[in-house]
Specification:
The radius of gyration is 22 Å and the shape is globular. By secondary structure, it is an all-alpha fold. The longest helix is centred in the first third of the chain and has 32 residues. The C terminus is likely disordered. The protein is built from 17 helices and no strands.
């Protein structure tokens, strides 16, 4: 009798619908790299240089920023192996500090942080896609919002349809991001080989435009941290990683050093082709870089930023929906959000909530830094793109 009951329990356990383990080592690396590399590396170097005050110190900030991410990721690798639950920060906080703290973190993330972040990335994508058609003016306010909404809806449909499709999109667009940055690095190295490295000579690189202070250096690190954010996102999908005890740490140890190297080399490439004054005068460093060195192929840079942000939207939808799913499973959100599609094994209700919350944010008309008719003052400015709400989670 006891053996029969045990067999029935095992059968019922096997028949449960759960999230499938479809994320291998390559896709795990793509999730980390794809979430880190958004539009930040194409825009943030200006802010880092402005607050660092010199080329040399700004490069040190980029390297040290990557080092901080490495230390943090090592902690998360241990947490992911010790507490093998999806949900990332929420799951760990709930497990360690209790349900109340986890509940507060979950609701602030679901209602504010992730929808705002997704809206900012989607609007950045729309701005870069529409910019070639409106070279002498800003893209229309309504067109930008509409394209951003279409992008979010399309990627929500993809994530609802198949985990494999979503991870393949992440793989492809991550490779595209690395190829775009690789192009910048190669062109920069060619410039260095031709002798254009005046700004990188130590005697010149550490000439400060302003006296460095602890506050300014901290702000430089803050600007760099925006470009590095997303390094912990693989922990949000731990339960879908194949053999997480091995692949989760491996993916972290491969991805973070790789991104740090790419970011540092990209900034060196920028300084090999642009003076600090030119970089500070640019709102989109990669676009200015392309216009200066790529000639008729300068269109590659705006397209690269658009592709980069498209992959970022997919990564944020994929991971944030798992946060909703984990919260609902723990009883901190309506249990409906913990339901999974019987055939596709995707958390469709959670994905729809993330999509709806993002669209609501997109419908909020920007006020801060806006011009007439609600158009953003600067398509590359977080305040210009989304108004004051952007400061809640400025990760680009």
């Amino acid at each position: 009798m006891g053996d029969e009951v045990k067999r029935k329990k095992d059968k019922n356990k096997d028949d449960r619908v759960t999230l499938k383990k479809e994320i291998g080592l390559l896709s795990a690396c793509a999730i980390i790299i794809g979430n880190i590399i958004g539009s930040g590396i194409f825009v943030s170097p200006k802010g880092v240089l402005e607050h660092a005050g010199s080329v040399g110190l700004s490069l040190i900030v980029w390297v040290c920023g990557g080092g901080i991410c490495v230390l943090g990721s090592m902690c998360y690798a241990e947490l992911g192996v010790t507490i093998p639950k999806s949900g990332g920060d929420y799951s760990y906080v709930t497990e360690i500090f209790g349900g109340l703290i986890g509940f507060l973190l979950l609701w602030s993330a679901v209602l504010i942080m992730y929808p705002t972040t997704l809206a900012v990335i989607a609007l950045t994508f729309a701005n870069y896609v529409l910019q070639p058609a409106f070279q002498n003016c800003l893209p229309p306010y309504a067109a930008t919002r509409l394209l951003a909404t279409i992008c979010v809806l399309f990627l929500t449909w993809v994530n609802c349809s198949s985990v494999r499709w979503a991870t393949r999109i992440q793989d492809v667009f991550t490779v595209g991001k690395l190829l775009a940055l690789g192009l910048i690095i190669i062109v920069g190295l060619v410039q260095i080989g031709r002798g254009y490295y005046d700004a990188l000579v130590p005697s010149v690189a550490f000439e400060f435009s302003q006296e460095p202070s602890v506050g300014q250096i901290a702000l430089a690190f803050l600007q760099a941290s925006f470009a590095y954010s997303g390094w912990n996102f693989l922990n949000y999908v731990t339960e879908e990683v194949v053999d997480p005890r091995k692949n989760l740490p491996r993916a972290i140890y491969i991805s973070i050093p790789l991104v740090t190297l790419v970011y540092t080399m990209t900034n060196i490439a920028y300084f090999s082709s642009m003076t600090p004054e030119e970089l500070l005068a640019s709102n989109a460093v990669a676009v200015t870089f392309g216009e200066k060195l790529l000639g008729m192929f300068s269109w590659v840079m705006p397209i690269s930023v658009a592709l980069s942000t498209f992959g970022g939207i997919n990564g944020y939808l994929f991971t944030s929906s798992r946060l909703c799913f984990s919260g609902a499973r723990e009883g901190h959100l309506p249990y409906l959000l913990a339901m999974i599609h019987l055939k596709n094994c995707t958390p469709i209700p959670a994905l729809l909530v993330c999509c709806f919350a993002t669209i609501v944010i997109l419908c909020i008309e920007a006020r801060s830094g806006a011009t007439n008719k609600g158009e953003p003052a600067d398509p590359h400015s977080l305040h210009g793109v989304l108004g004051g709400a952007a400061v809640l989670q400025p990760v680009l």
